[in-house]
């Protein structure tokens, strides 16, 4: 700190040979000598001394005493308190502001701080604007309301009018020179086509387990703020929500200016399908599709039929379920139970095809059968036979009777006898049908066979 003073008016009758300088902290009691030897040579600008080893931020007072041949004279009055600190200046100018955003009545600006702060921290910034056709610069903010950071929004501008902007930095020493001014900036809404981002690991495909939550989150961008709507294409029952979203009844949509989320708390297989989100604004529109596959146990097989029944086996055939649960059918489970039985017994648990021959049936016993499909998510509901199936060998029509003989013949009757067929077709013969050949005596009609018996003939003879 440089301390200067004037020589005394009275030199005491002897030339002044030097000066002693003392200092103390403001509020202190004791004075300490500053110079080790008397100050004897005046500087170019007068008597002065550069005081070193001061503590930054502390206020000091100084006093000086003159020396002549008679000794040291009385001290001067203490100086005004002086703060030990580096000198400060007004800061350098900030960079030319850049336009970061615009609306129909505001402009957002950003700039870089000055390279030099003038030795004192920047308190804030003043922004000035100049209207189109005017040479006057007006304050956007007042000196007592400085912008604390290197950005601001200039509000209340006239739509489609042009403005220029510049910035000043302020520290303890005052305001900087203004920055370079921007070019003329028209105030109007920035238009950007909508953009939709969906955070899915599998891009546009989502797999989820039945009973879990479906949540599709979309980030929306665009200027002006786009309006969004969801659409569902699938078998679940739909309804129009908020008059814009055509989505499943048990779903909900949460929307902000920048996000839209569709949520189904507990999904079912029927919620599988295509979910589409559309964002629209003045600049255009965009649609993004997400395919959702809800994974579950399969539905029941179809068209279960029983064929080729024998006394110990029965062949089952069926068709794959309409609903595979969203995953490949791994196998089918085959079960049987007797008509009187209460529980089902497993016949096979690893049938890979859509047919199976059930073994180990008991001859004459009646059975029900059922088939269940299984995938990696579990087993679905079964399909069961409704008709009883009796375990027995297949029955075919019997062979013709043998050794037919004609016995007593009268003018209006004849006695017949025969032997049973050699092969009864797998079941006892229950009765016989007797027919006679009739022809037209005139020769005009055709020969025809007509049944003789009106009741079942259980014996191997008949009189007609």
TrEMBL record:
Domain Ig-like: 178-289
Domain Fibronectin type-III per the UniProt entry, residue ranges: 1-87, 93-190, 300-394, 400-464
Keywords attached to this entry: Immunoglobulin domain
Residues in coiled coil: none
SMART domains: FN3
Entries under Gene3D superfamilies matching the protein: Immunoglobulins (2.60.40.10)
Pfam families: fn3, I-set
Name the UniProt record assigns to this protein: Titin
Native organism: Staurois parvus
């Amino acid at each position: 700190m440089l301390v200067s003073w004037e020589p005394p008016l009275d030199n005491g009758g002897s030339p002044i040979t030097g000066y002693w300088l003392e200092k103390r902290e403001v509020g202190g009691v004791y004075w300490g000598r500053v110079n080790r030897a008397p100050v004897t040579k005046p500087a170019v600008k007068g008597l002065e001394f550069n005081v070193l080893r001061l503590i930054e931020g502390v206020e000091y007072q100084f006093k000086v005493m003159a020396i002549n041949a008679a000794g040291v004279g009385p001290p001067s009055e203490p100086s005004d308190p002086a703060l030990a600190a580096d000198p400060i200046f007004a800061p350098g100018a900030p960079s030319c502001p850049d336009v970061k955003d615009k609306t129909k009545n505001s402009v957002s600006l950003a700039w870089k701080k000055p390279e030099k702060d003038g030795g004192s921290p920047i308190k804030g910034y003043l922004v000035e604007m100049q209207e189109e056709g005017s040479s006057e610069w007006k304050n956007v903010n007042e000196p007592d309301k400085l912008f604390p950071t290197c950005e601001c929004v200039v509000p209340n501008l006239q739509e489609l009018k042009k403005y220029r902007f510049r910035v000043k930095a302020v520290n303890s020493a005052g305001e900087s020179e203004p920055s370079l001014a921007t070019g003329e900036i028209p105030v109007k809404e920035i238009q950007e086509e909508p953009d939709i981002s969906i955070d899915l690991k599998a891009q546009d495909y989502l797999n989820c387990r039945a009973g879990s939550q479906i949540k599709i989150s979309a980030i929306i961008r665009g200027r002006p703020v786009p309006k969004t709507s969801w659409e569902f294409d699938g078998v679940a029952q739909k309804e129009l929500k908020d008059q814009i979203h055509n989505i499943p009844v048990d779903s909900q949509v949460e929307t902000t200016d920048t996000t839209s989320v569709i949520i189904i708390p507990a999904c079912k297989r029927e919620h599988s399908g295509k979910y589409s989100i559309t964002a629209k604004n003045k600049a255009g529109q965009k649609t993004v599709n997400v395919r959702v596959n809800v994974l579950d146990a399969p539905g029941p097989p179809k068209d279960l039929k029983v064929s080729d029944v024998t006394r110990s086996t029965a062949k089952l055939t069926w068709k794959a379920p309409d609903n595979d649960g969203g995953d490949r059918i791994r196998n089918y489970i085959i079960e049987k139970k007797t008509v009187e039985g209460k529980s089902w017994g497993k016949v096979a648990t690893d049938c890979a095809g859509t047919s199976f021959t059930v073994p180990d049936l008991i001859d004459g016993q009646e059975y029900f059968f059922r088939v269940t499909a299984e995938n990696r998510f579990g087993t679905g509901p079964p399909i069961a036979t409704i008709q009883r199936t009796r375990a027995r060998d297949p029955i075919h029509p019997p062979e013709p009777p043998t050794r037919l003989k004609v016995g007593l013949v009268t003018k209006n009757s004849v006695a017949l006898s025969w032997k049973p067929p050699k092969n009864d077709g797998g079941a006892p013969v229950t009765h016989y049908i007797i027919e006679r050949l009739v022809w037209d005596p005139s020769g005009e009609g055709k020969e025809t066979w007509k049944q003789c018996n009106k009741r079942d003939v259980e014996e191997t003879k008949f009189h007609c």
